[in-house]
Design goal:
Radius of gyration of chain A: 23 Å
Distance between the termini of chain A: 68 Å
Helix content of chain A: over 70%
Number of strands of chain A: 0
Number of strands of chain B: 5
Strand order of the largest sheet of chain B: 4-3-5
Helix content of chain B: 55-70%
Structural class of chain A: mainly alpha
Largest sheet of chain B: 3 strands, antiparallel
CATH class of chain A: Mainly Alpha
Strand content of chain B: under 5%
Oligomer: heterotrimer
Radius of gyration of chain B: 34 Å
C-alpha cells in the first residue's frame, strides 16, 4: 500500500503530518458542523472552525510564497469568495443564501480581474449577480412567500451531512496535494506577453475571429432558452387555469 | 445363398415399410384404408416366408456336414458396435445379423400367417374407430418386431426386439387410452414384462461373461488391410478354421453361443453359472409368456381390442418365451435341474390357470387363463429334456396359435354382435343367431380340449408322452444304477448319470397335474361354449341392431383358422400313421436342436396309445360334466357353486338350527320338564359350554371360508392382492418418500439458490430512495473512489 | 508570486469553490439553494479555466468561461421556470417532496426533529392614525374622475 501510494510521486506520510492536512481536516469538520442543523450554536462553532481551517490554508501558502502585496491581495479576495460561498451554502434562510452568493461573486469577479480577465470579471458580475441572483429572488418570492420554512433549517439526513463534506474536501485535498509534483512537470512560462488594458480588445478579436460560430451558437442557445422558459410557464399556467376552471 | 438372404430381408422388411407408410400417412391420407398397407405387407411377408421355407428345404440337403449339426444360414447386415480389443479389456463386437434356419422359418410362417388373418379380422372389427390408423400402425410395428425377434442371430438384438414387442403390447393393450382400466392394464403388462426383462438382462450379462460373445453363430474375424472383417458363412468359417490350424494367425475364430463349432465340441458352461444362466432366461421367459409368478398381466390385458388379444396374447408375443427357451436348449440340456424347473413351472402354471378359469364370467378372461394354461403345457414339453419333448412343445405352440387365435376372434365376433358385452351371464343361446361363429368356435373348443382328430389332440399327447418317457427314463437309469450296471442304458450321457431320482418324482407330480389340467381344460372350455351358444336365446340391450352374424371380413378368417386348427395336426403329426413326425423332423434341423445329447434322447414320432386314450377319456368326461351342468336349467350349477363356496358350512356353523333343535322336539320337551323340576341351571350351563366350544371351533373356519375353493378360484388366488400389499404398496411408499424428499429438500435447495439474488436485490433496493440529493451523493462517492485510485494508487 | 505559485493558488481556490458547491447541492433541501450551489460550482470552474488560460497564454480558456456564463444564464432561465412549476405543484420548494420514484418497499424520508423557527413571527407594532383625516369627497367616490 505504501509503495503504491508513493508511486504518484507524493510523500503522503509527510503531507499528512503537515499543517495543510490539518487545515483540510478542520475545514471538513467545520463544514460538517455548519450545515443546517437543529442546534444553532453548533452551527456557529462550525463556522468558526472552518474559518480557522481556511486561515491555516492561506497562511501556509503565504509562508511558502512569501507575503508579497499581490499574494496578500490575492488571498484577501480569495477569502471573500470562499467565505461567501460557505455562507451561501450554510445559511438557514434562502434569501440570505442569495445575498451571500452575490458577495461571493464579488470575490470571484475580483479574482478574475486580478488575473487579467477584466471582461470576464465584469461579465460575471453583470450576468450572475445582476440577472441570475435577481431572478432567483423573484422566484423565491413567488414560490416561498413565507420566507421561513422547515426544510431550510434542516439537511435531509445525518448521513449526507457528514459524508458530503468529508468526501468533497477529501477529494480536493487529494488533488491539491499532488499539484506541486504535477505542476513541476509542466514547462515554466513567464508572465503573459502584453499585460494590461488591451485584454478586452484582444479577447474580443479572439472571440469574433476564432470562435465566431461559438458566439452565434451561444446566442441561439440563449434565444432557445428564452422561448423555452416562456413556454414552460405558459403551459403551466394553462393547465393550472384549466384546473381552476374545473 | 443370395435368395435366402433376400427372402429373409424381405420377410422383415415388408412390415417395416408398412409401419412407416401407415405411421406417416395413416392419419391424414389413408384413414379408413390404413389397413391396406399393413395387410398387404403381412401377406407379402407370409408368401416370402413360405418361399424361404422351400428354399431352406432345398439348401439343407446340400449343406456342409450333410446337416449333421443342423443347418443355418446367417445374413449379416451391418456392424453396430465394434470396440477393439485393448489387450487389458476384451473388445465388444455387436453385428446386426439375421438368421435363416428351420426353427426361424417355422416361427416366421406362423407369425405372418396368423397375423394376416387377425389383420383382416381387425379391419372389420375396428371399423369406425377413431384410432383406426394408429391401430394398424401398431399392428405393423408389432409384426415387424416379432419377426425380427425370431430372425436375429444375437442375444442382444433378440433382447432389443423382446422389449419392442413389450412396447407394442403396452401400446395395443392401452389402445383405448382414455379408459382408465385400459391404461392401467397396459402399465401392468409392461411393468410385469419389465421384471422378466430384468432377469433376461442378467442372463445376457452372464452369457457375455462366460461365453465371450452374444452371437448365436460362429464368427471368423479376418484381419485384412481394411481392419477386421467378420465372416459368418459356416462354410467359410470352417475353411478359415482349417487355415488357422495350419499356423496362420490372421484369423480369430469366435465361437457363437449356439454355433455349429460349439455344438460340435460340446463346450457348455455347467455348474452354478450355467444353472444361473438357464434360470434367468426362464425368468425372462416367465415374464413374457405369463408363467407363475409373472402371469398376472395377461388376464388384465383383455382390456385391449379383441384382435390384439388374439394376435399378441394368444399366438405370437407370449410364444416368444417358449421360442427363447427352445433356442437355448443346448444351455438347458447341460443343466438337468434347469429343465426340471422349467417343466415344473410350466406344469404348475397350467394347473393354476385352469383352476382360475373355472369360475370366470368374462369370456375373454376364460380364454386368457386358458392361454396361460396352454403356455404352461408348452413349457412342460420343453422341460421334458428330450428331442420329443422340445419339438412337442413347439408343435403345441403352432397348434395353439391356430385354435387360440380362432377362439379369441370368435369371442370378438360375439362381442361385436352383443354390443361390447362379453359377460356370459348376460347373453346365451347364440348358435342360431351366429351360425358361423358358433361352428368355428366349437371347432376351436374341441381342438383346445384335445379331441381326436383335431390338432390339439396330437400336440397335447406328444407333450404328455414326452413327459411320461422322461419319467420312465429316469426311473430306469436309477434302477440300472441300483443293480450295479456298468454298461450305461440307452440314451445315457456322462452327465445324465448325475440326475438324482427325486427328479423323476417331480416329473411324475407334474405329469398328474397335466392330466388333471386336461380335464379342467375340457370342462371350462365347454362351460364357456354352452353358456354362450346354447340354452335359451338372450341378447342384452346394448346389442341393439348389432345382434347378427358378423360381416364376411370377420367370418372368413374364422373359417380359415378353423380349417387350420382342424387339419394342421393331421398333416404334421403322422405318428399314428407311420411313426414319422414331419414337423419335428423339420425343426430338428436347427443347430440348437442337433445336439448329440438330444440325438440320443427319446425321439419324436412315437405315438403313445395308452396316454392318448387316457387323456381323450378324461377330456370327454370333462365335456360331459360341462354338458350336464350347463345345458338345460342350471340348478345344479348353483348348488355346486354354493357347495364349493362353503355356504353349507356357514349355515352349519350358525346357531339358528341349534336353537330350533333346542326348543322343539324331544330335547325341548326334556328341557322344559327339567326346568319345571328346578334343574334349569344344568341345561343352561350345558348350552353355554356348547356355544363357547362352537364359537371357538367355528371362528377360524368361518374365516377360512374366505378361502373357499370357489372364492380362491374366482379371485384368481388373490395374487393381485398379494402383489399389491407386498410389492406395489411399499414401492408407492418409497416413491412418495422420494417425492417428498425431492420437493422439500432438493427443491428447497434450488429455491434457496434462487432466494439469494432476491435477497441481494432487497439489500440494494434501498439505494433507490427517490431523493435526488442522495443520487448525487452516490455519484460523487463513486468519483472520489476513482480519484483516490488514480491519485494514490497509480 | 511566480506564475506556478499563482496557478497553484488559483487551482486551490477554484477547487474549494467546487467542493463547497458540491456540498451545498448534496445537503440542502431548498430547490433554489441547490441551484445556487450549482452556480457556485460553476464559479469555481470558471476560476480554474481563467487560471489555466493565463498559464498557457491561451485565450481559449476565457472564451470557454464566456460560454459558461451564457449557458449558465440559459440554465438559470429554464431551471428557475421549472422550479416554479414544481413549486406550484406541491406548494413548497422542498426537494424531499419529490420522492415518489423510490423503489417499492423503501420507506419515505420523513423529518424527525423539526427545529423551531429562528425568529418568531414578529408582531410589528401598528401605529394608530394621527393627524386630521382628509375630507371624504362623496362625488369622487361615486364617480371616479381619474382613471
Amino acid at each position: 500500500m505504501t509503495e503504491c501510494m508513493l508511486a504518484s510521486g507524493v510523500d503522503w506520510q509527510a503531507w499528512l503530518r503537515s499543517p495543510v492536512a490539518a487545515a483540510w481536516l478542520l475545514l471538513a469538520v467545520g463544514l460538517i458542523c455548519s450545515l443546517p442543523r437543529t442546534s444553532r450554536f453548533r452551527q456557529r462553532v462550525g463556522w468558526l472552525v472552518s474559518a480557522v481551517g481556511l486561515g491555516i490554508l492561506a497562511g501556509s501558502s503565504l509562508r511558502q510564497t512569501g507575503a508579497s502585496t499581490s499574494a496578500v491581495i490575492f488571498w484577501g479576495l480569495a477569502a471573500i469568495a470562499v467565505v461567501g460561498a460557505v455562507a451561501a451554502v450554510t445559511m438557514t434562510s434562502a434569501v440570505y443564501c442569495a445575498i451571500w452568493f452575490a458577495f461571493s461573486l464579488l470575490g470571484v469577479a475580483a479574482l478574475m480581474c486580478f488575473q487579467g480577465a477584466e471582461f470576464l470579471g465584469v461579465a460575471t458580475l453583470v450576468v450572475y449577480a445582476g440577472a441570475i441572483v435577481v431572478t432567483l429572488l423573484f422566484v423565491l418570492m413567488l414560490a416561498q412567500p413565507r420566507g421561513d420554512t422547515v426544510y431550510d433549517r434542516l439537511s435531509w439526513g445525518n448521513f449526507p451531512r457528514t459524508v458530503s463534506p468529508a468526501i468533497s474536501i477529501g477529494m480536493v485535498a487529494m488533488l491539491t496535494a499532488i499539484l506541486p509534483a504535477a505542476l513541476a512537470e509542466l514547462p515554466a512560462r513567464g508572465a503573459p506577453a502584453t499585460p494590461g488594458g488591451d485584454s478586452v480588445a484582444r479577447l474580443g478579436a479572439f472571440l469574433f475571429t476564432r470562435h465566431l460560430i461559438g458566439v452565434e451558437l451561444a446566442g441561439t442557445l440563449l434565444l432557445a432558452a428564452l422561448v423555452g422558459a416562456v413556454a414552460i410557464t405558459m403551459h403551466g399556467r394553462y393547465s393550472i387555469g384549466r384546473e381552476e376552471a374545473e | 445363398m443370395d435368395t435366402i438372404s433376400w427372402l429373409t430381408i424381405a420377410i422383415v422388411g415388408f412390415p417395416l415399410v408398412a409401419v412407416l407408410i401407415t405411421g406417416l400417412f395413416g392419419a391424414r391420407v389413408l384413414r379408413g384404408a390404413s389397413h391396406l398397407p399393413v395387410v398387404l405387407a403381412i401377406a407379402a411377408s407370409f408368401i416370402a416366408s413360405v418361399g424361404l421355407f422351400q428354399q431352406l428345404r432345398l439348401e439343407r440337403a446340400t449343406s456342409v456336414d450333410g446337416g449333421r449339426w443342423g443347418y443355418a444360414h446367417v445374413v449379416p447386415l451391418w456392424s453396430w458396435v465394434g470396440v477393439e480389443d485393448s489387450g487389458r479389456d476384451p473388445g465388444l463386437r455387436i453385428d446386426v445379423t439375421l438368421r435363416a434356419d428351420p426353427l426361424t422359418s417355422m416361427m416366421q410362417m406362423m407369425v405372418s400367417g396368423i397375423s394376416l388373418f387377425v389383420a383382416v379380422f381387425a379391419a372389420g372389427y375396428m371399423k369406425g374407430d377413431r384410432g383406426y390408423w394408429r391401430f394398424f400402425a401398431y399392428i405393423a410395428l408389432f409384426v415387424f418386431s416379432m419377426l425380427m425377434l425370431v430372425t436375429v442371430s444375437s442375444f442382444l438384438l433378440l433382447f432389443v426386439f423382446w422389449e419392442a414387442v413389450g412396447v407394442c403390447s403396452y401400446l395395443l393393450i392401452g389402445f383405448w387410452y382414455q379408459r382408465p382400466s385400459a391404461a392401467a392394464a397396459g402399465m401392468k403388462a409392461f411393468l410385469v414384462n419389465r421384471i422378466g426383462d430384468f432377469g433376461f438382462t442378467l442372463a445376457i450379462f452372464l452369457i457375455w461373461l462366460h461365453y465371450g460373445t452374444l452371437d448365436f453363430h460362429d464368427v471368423a474375424l479376418e484381419q485384412t488391410a481394411a481392419g477386421a472383417v467378420a465372416v459368418t458363412d459356416p462354410v467359410q468359417v470352417a475353411q478359415l478354421a482349417a487355415d488357422a490350424a495350419d499356423g496362420s494367425n490372421r484369423v480369430e475364430i469366435v465361437d457363437g453361443v449356439l454355433g455349429r463349432r460349439r455344438i460340435a465340441s460340446g463346450t457348455w458352461v455347467g455348474g452354478t453359472a450355467g444353472l444361473a444362466i438357464c434360470l434367468l432366461l426362464m425368468w425372462g421367459a416367465c415374464g413374457k409368456s405369463a408363467q407363475f409368478p409373472l402371469h398376472v398381466w395377461l388376464p388384465d390385458a383383455m382390456e385391449g381390442p379383441t384382435p390384439v388379444s388374439a394376435l399378441i396374447h394368444a399366438a405370437t408375443m407370449v410364444t416368444a418365451g417358449v421360442y427363447l427357451i427352445v433356442r437355448c436348449s443346448p444351455l438347458l440340456v447341460a443343466n438337468p435341474t434347469a429343465q426340471l424347473i422349467v417343466a415344473s413351472v410350466g406344469g404348475f402354471t397350467a394347473l393354476l390357470a385352469a383352476l382360475i378359469a373355472l369360475t370366470q364370467y368374462d369370456l375373454k378372461r376364460v380364454l386368457a387363463y386358458s392361454t396361460v394354461s396352454q403356455l404352461g403345457y408348452m413349457f412342460l414339453g420343453v422341460g421334458a429334456a428330450s428331442l420329443a419333448g422340445i419339438t412337442a412343445g413347439m408343435f403345441h405352440l403352432l397348434t395353439h396359435a391356430f385354435f387360440k387365435a380362432l377362439l379369441f376372434l370368435g369371442a370378438g365376433s360375439v362381442m361385436h354382435a352383443m354390443g361390447n358385452v362379453i359377460d356370459m351371464r348376460k347373453f346365451g343361446g347364440l348358435r342360431r343367431l351366429m351360425p358361423y361363429t358358433h361352428a368355428t368356435f366349437l371347432i376351436g373348443a374341441l381342438a383346445l380340449a384335445g379331441i381326436f382328430p383335431l390338432s390339439g389332440f396330437w400336440s397335447k399327447d406328444a407333450i404328455m408322452g414326452a413327459v411320461h418317457d422322461r419319467i420312465h427314463h429316469l426311473e430306469h437309469v436309477a434302477a440300472g444304477e441300483a443293480h450295479g450296471d456298468d454298461a450305461p442304458a440307452a440314451g445315457e450321457d456322462a452327465g445324465e448319470a448325475a440326475v438324482p431320482l427325486w427328479h423323476a418324482k417331480v416329473y411324475r407330480l407334474v405329469y398328474y397335474a397335466g392330466m388333471i389340467t386336461v380335464w379342467l381344460t375340457a370342462f371350462y372350455t365347454f362351460r364357456a361354449v354352452f353358456m354362450t351358444f346354447y340354452g335359451e336365446e338372450r341378447v342384452p340391450e346394448e346389442a341393439g341392431h348389432h345382434a347378427h352374424e358378423s360381416p364376411p371380413s370377420m367370418v372368413v378368417p374364422l373359417v380359415v383358422l378353423a380349417t387350420g386348427a382342424a387339419v394342421v395336426g393331421l398333416l404334421l403329426d403322422r405318428s399314428m400313421v407311420d411313426g414319422t413326425h414331419p414337423f419335428s423332423q423339420w425343426i430338428a434341423g436347427t443347430p440348437s436342436l442337433s445336439l448329440p445329447a438330444l440325438a440320443e434322447s427319446s425321439q419324436p414320432g412315437q405315438f403313445h396309445m395308452a396316454i392318448a386314450a387316457v387323456s381323450t377319456l378324461i377330456a370327454l368326461i370333462g365335456i360331459g360334466l360341462a354338458a350336464h351342468l350347463y345345458l338345460g336349467p342350471r340348478d345344479e350349477v348353483r348348488w355346486l357353486k354354493s357347495f364349493l363356496d362353503l355356504e353349507w358350512f356357514a349355515r352349519l356353523s350358525s346357531i339358528d338350527w341349534l336353537l330350533r333343535f333346542r326348543s322343539q322336539g324331544a330335547w325341548g320337551a326334556v328341557e322344559r320338564a327339567a326346568r319345571r323340576a328346578g334343574l334349569g341351571w344344568f341345561f343352561d350351563g350345558l348350552w353355554m359350554v356348547l356355544f363357547v366350544v362352537l364359537l371357538v371351533l367355528a371362528t377360524p373356519l368361518l374365516v377360512l371360508r374366505w378361502l373357499s375353493p370357489y372364492r380362491l378360484s374366482y379371485h384368481k388366488f388373490y395374487f393381485d392382492e398379494i402383489y399389491t400389499w407386498l410389492i406395489v404398496r411399499p414401492m408407492s411408499l418409497v416413491a412418495a418418500l422420494s417425492a417428498w424428499l425431492d420437493r422439500t429438500v432438493i427443491d428447497a435447495l434450488v429455491d434457496w439458490v434462487g432466494w439469494v439474488p432476491r435477497a441481494i436485490g432487497n439489500m440494494w433496493r434501498g439505494v433507490q430512495s427517490g431523493l435526488i440529493s442522495f443520487y448525487a451523493l452516490a455519484m460523487v462517492m463513486a468519483v472520489v473512489v476513482f480519484v483516490w485510485v488514480r491519485v494514490c494508487l497509480m | 508570486m511566480s506564475e506556478q505559485e499563482l496557478l497553484h493558488a488559483y487551482l486551490l481556490v477554484g477547487g474549494l469553490l467546487v467542493a463547497i458547491g458540491m456540498i451545498g447541492f448534496m445537503v440542502r433541501r431548498n430547490l433554489l439553494v441547490m441551484f445556487l450551489s450549482i452556480e457556485i460550482m460553476l464559479q469555481g470552474v470558471s476560476l480554474n479555466l481563467v487560471a489555466w488560460s493565463r498559464f498557457h497564454h491561451d485565450l481559449g480558456g476565457q472564451v470557454l468561461v464566456l460560454m459558461i456564463i451564457a449557458v449558465a444564464a440559459c440554465e438559470a432561465g429554464i431551471g428557475l421556470a421549472l422550479v416554479l412549476m414544481l413549486a406550484r405543484r406541491v406548494r413548497s420548494l422542498d426537494v424531499v417532496a419529490w420522492q415518489d420514484l423510490r423503489e417499492s418497499g423503501v420507506p419515505p424520508h420523513v423529518d424527525r426533529q423539526i427545529p423551531e423557527a429562528e425568529s418568531p413571527v414578529e408582531a410589528w407594532p401598528r401605529l394608530p392614525q394621527a393627524g386630521v383625516l382628509p375630507e371624504a369627497n362623496e362625488e369622487e367616490e361615486l364617480y371616479r374622475s381619474r382613471v
